[in-house]
Every structure is written in C-alpha cells, then in structure tokens.
Amino acid sequence: MTRRRAPVSPPVALTIAGSDSGGGAGIQADLKTMEAHGVFGTSVVTAVTAQNTLGVEGSYALPIEEIDAQYSAVQTDFDLGAVKTGMLATAPVIDLVADRLTDAGAPVVVDPVMVAASGDRLLDPDAEAAYEDLIAEATLVTPNVDEATVLTGIEPTDRDTAREAGEALVGMGADAALVKGGHVGRDGNTVTDTLVVDEEDGLATRTFEHPRIDTDATHGSGCTLSSAIAAHLAHGETLPFAVEAGTAFMERAVRYSLDVGNGPGAVHHLAALREAADRHRTMTDVAEVVEAFVDRDVSRLVPEVGMNVVGATAYAERVGETAAVEGRITRTLSGVSPNRGVRLGASSHVARFLLAAREFDPDLRFAVNCRFDDETAAATAELDGPTTEYDRDAEPDDASGTMGWGARQAFGAVDADDPTPVAVLDRGAVGKEAIIKVVAETPEELGERVFALLDAVE
C-alpha cells in the first residue's frame, strides 16, 4: 500500500538578485532566509559574482532576455506573496525589473544593493538614477547609510537626518522606507533603524533599536534583513510587524555569525531556526540535571527561595528561549523534589542572570542558584574555576533589573583574557536572600560543580 500524500502549501516569495559564490549574500542568503521563515523561495538571477568572505573578485550581469525569461517562468506559475530585489547591476536590468513589478500584485521590498559590506561596488554608477522608477513600485525600500545618501542626497548621521532621508524616499513613491543604522555612529553601543511610512493621515516614523554586535561578520546582512521582511509580508503580516520581526531576526543572525572562510565570516541565516530546534534538547538536559539532583539529594544546597536549574539554547536571547523547572526545586521530608516539570520560560531570575552572563561568554548554557552561607561560600574554593561576586547595595536606582545588573557587575569585572568565573556570590540585601549562582557550558559540567559544592559542605 502506498502512503497517502500530505502536501504543504507555504506562501511563496521571489528574490530578484545576484548570485554570491561565497554563499553568504545575494540569492543564496535570500533563499536560506525565506526557508527559515517557512516561505518557499523562488529566484531570478540577475548577475553572477565571484566573491567570498574576503571580497568581490568579479561580476557578470546576465543578458536582459535571460533575466526576463526567469521572471516570466516564476510569475506565470506561482502565486507570489512577496517580492524582494537585491543586486540589479545595470540600468537596463533595473528598468526591466521596475516595469515587471508594476503588475506584481504582491508587496515589493527593494534592497538597493550598491556596495558590498567589504566596500566593493556592486552597482554600475550609471544605474543609480534608474532606481527612481523601481523605488516608486516599492512597498518598502531598505537602504543603508551609503545607499540612502546616493539615492536622496541626504547623509543620515543621526535620527533626524535618517528620518529626512526616509521621507525623501517615500517622496520618490515608496510606501515606506527603512533607513538602516548599522553604519551610523559605529562607536556607539546601539543601532537604530528608522522606518518612515506613508499613512492616510501623513508620514509616520518609528525607530527600532538593538544592541550593536561587536563583529565584522556582517556579510549578507542587508540581503538577509530584506528577505526576512519579505517573508513576513508573504505570510500576510503588517509592514511594521514585518520590520520589527525582521530586525530582531537580523540581530540574532549577526550575533551568532558563521565563522567560515578566511574573512570575517557571514551572518547566520538559520540562527533562529537552530534556536527553535535546540529547545527540546535543552529541556531534556535540564530535566536530566534535575533528576540527578533529586537522586543525590542536594537539599543542603537548596536556598529558602527554592532552587532552579536553567538551560539556554545555543542561540537564546530571551527568557522564553530558556528551559527551567516550573515552580522550582524545594526541600521535602525525604530530600528534594521539583514542584512541576520543565518548560520554556519557567524561570525569571536565574534565566535573566544566565542571559546577561552570556553577553560576556556566549558558551555559557546552564545555571543554578544555590544556598549561600559561610560553608557554601568557602566551598566555592573547591570548584574547577574562579569565582566572583557583586554587592547588591551598589545597585543604582535606574538599573533595569538586579539579575542583569549583577551579572554585568560580576562578569564585566573579569579581564577578557582570564577564565570565565564558574560561580558568582550574591551577598544579598535587606529583604533579598544571599545566593550562589553556578554556571557552566554543559549540563554535565553544571552537575559536577554542584556536586563538588555538596561534597565540600558534607
């Protein structure tokens, strides 16, 4: 008996862009990003480039007839939910694409690719003026600072000039413009992207802020962001939501960049997908640690507030991407027991501490809070690494949260060349119980460190 087919009907998006032989940008980045968002990606290749993580070595624009044939083949067969454009290379190609997208019948995201992240020029200077007609067809245009300057004559150097450039792009016919802030104030700690939308009652501006990532591995970032936004639009989501989700996706893709090639590397187009795939394993790891603590009876180390074991996925950025015991581990007449099972987002305090610690050492994946007293504090000397501490009395009134602030105090005081602390002593404050937090890269390592503490105090 043959199995009954069970077809899936995902939304379809189209990318019109150049090919990147290095795999980090262009068509390759677009299709990976669309797939990561549950969108079936189709493509029209406009040019073939010889490039890698070090730079662009050559570029060849395909004949107009071949580009048009690809578009016709896709457009006549697929119900397109969104279209995005990338490297178009020449004025004739831009004119062709602008003409075809007049009747696209789907949201159009225009990424005006002119210069690669490496600084190499990807667009024929004669083609810059041709972009005006294409921008007029755009649901959203997503230039970086250099591209916005070329297109509008306004150099975005701060929020006001970024807004002005966005307004100028909307004035050219785009429904909305997202002026990317990655190149603005590179010495600052925050990246601000500025979205200007043409609404019924006038232009509306919204900004999206996220921490600047200390990396040069941004190859493919523009392609990935515009493709992520197009994918969300293909799912039928609103433009503001698509931009917010796309920028968040981009932040994770840059932070967990791929260390490939001899250059800086490339953004990780599948980082969010890998995070989701890692959740079950992380929950299982936490459950196994909890089982080991119950079997060994770690009641001597359980604080008055209860103990919790937290595991973060390899790409975790939020509390909801960490696994922990729901309700914590508490002492019983016969030892210790978890109140309930392990689930995502079950911890607040320990999870936020772990996430903040990962800002200093992303390899940290697991944490547990233990009782603080004279004996356990002394026992930390038996651990297989250094310890550190912080004083809650020094916490400023404007701190965003004790756990994040404490982790930054503890791990931020450690020299970058020194080993990461394996335990942090929180001496508490009025109404706040003193706690020892043990951290580790693996569940096995976490268990070994907790048992080392237990052996020392028993």
TrEMBL record:
Give the record's keywords alphabetically: ATP-binding, Kinase, Nucleotide-binding, Transferase
- Per the record's keyword annotation, is Lipid metabolism included, yes or no? no
Its EC number is: 2.7.1.49, 2.7.4.7
Q: Give residue ranges for domain Pyridoxamine kinase/Phosphomethylpyrimidine kinase.
A: 20-268
Q: Where is this region: Disordered?
A: 379-400
Instruction: Extract the InterPro entries matched here.
Output: Aldolase_II/adducin_N_sf, HMP/HMP-P_kinase_dom, PM/HMP-P_kinase-1, Ribokinase-like, ThiN
- Single GO BP term: thiamine biosynthetic process
Q: Top enzyme class of this protein?
A: transferase
Look up keyword ATP-binding and say if it applies. Answer: yes
Query: This chain belongs to which protein, by name?
Result: Bifunctional hydroxymethylpyrimidine kinase/phosphomethylpyrimidine kinase
